[in-house]
Amino acid sequence: MIVWVNGTFGAGKTTACRELVELLPGSLLYDPELTGAELCRLLPADRLAPVADFQDLPSWRRLVPEVAAALLTEIPGPLVVPMTLLREDYRDEIFGGLAARGIAVHHLVLDAEETILRARIEAREEHPGDEAASEAVRTWCRDHLPAYRAARRWLARDAHLVDTARLTPAGTARLLARLVEDGTARCPIVQSPDPTGDTVAAAVLLFDEQDRVLLVDPVYKPGWEFPGGVVERGEAPTDAALRETAEELGLQLEAPALRLLAVDWEPRTGPRRGGLRLVYDGGRLGADRRQGLRLQADELRSWRFVTLEEAAGLLPATRLRRLAAALDARERGELRYLEAGLPAAVGAATTG
Predict the structure, then answer these.
(1) pTM of the model
(2) Does domain 2-182 fall into CATH 3.40.50.300?
(3) Mean pLDDT, all residues of the chain
(4) Measuring CA to CA, which residue among 4, 1, 86, 92 is closest to residue 299?
């Protein structure tokens, strides 16, 4: 189990978490900032030059779940993680990686009025005896207050906010321990561990009256997606498409309503699985059916209809190419075979 204590820089996360590990038997404090500092020491200067924050390094976001999972094998209790995480897509990536490893996450945010936060920041003396270094830390904390104000909107949906205005670090830790014990702040993301092999997945494209396509925003990974998911063992892809659409959107479709538009072979990239991706046309949704959409709370955050041009800002390149090919196949009444989202020449060998 992970107890992730979030909040703006200077909110008192580390101090409260040091108290918290004394209240949670067998627990251990893990600060992902140490992983970031080590990456900054290891990576070449030209790679670090454009990066203002180590959180922007994909390697950091990949390593945090790996290190956390490894540490949990060494201790009997939970891992307490004091770490500011203000970008929702980074939260999706990291928490999704933890969920894929079967690790439960309790997400708590230390919150207070900005005037109180500013007073606490001014009182910080991160480097006793080195006022210039301490002021640099205070400046960093002050500069990130606007980012926290903006992030607070999604944090209020995703986490349990703890008002620390009148709490000491010890009092904050006691409250956090109670919240962990009763499960109040446990994230709803539930995923089975990633299969070791490649997969077959089925997606369903749904359209509005303007022929815009519906995309969904998963809570367990960054970026947007098509409705759909992995085909289970022994399940037909069409059945998987129908099942996933019902589970994710509360939408009941019939098999005859689906038409296969594209089959795309997606290569494995890094930790991401590859395999076959089948894309179906699920037809148009009128206003009445759109009003009936019900998102699966532990998997999807929101949905929207987009044009292909708008999808370019939401989908990764391979998925965008797959969408473009599927839309073209829909318009022409064809079926496309793709590899990595690109048309693949398929011919038969001849003998003579």
Answers:
(1) 0.69
(2) yes
(3) 89
(4) 92
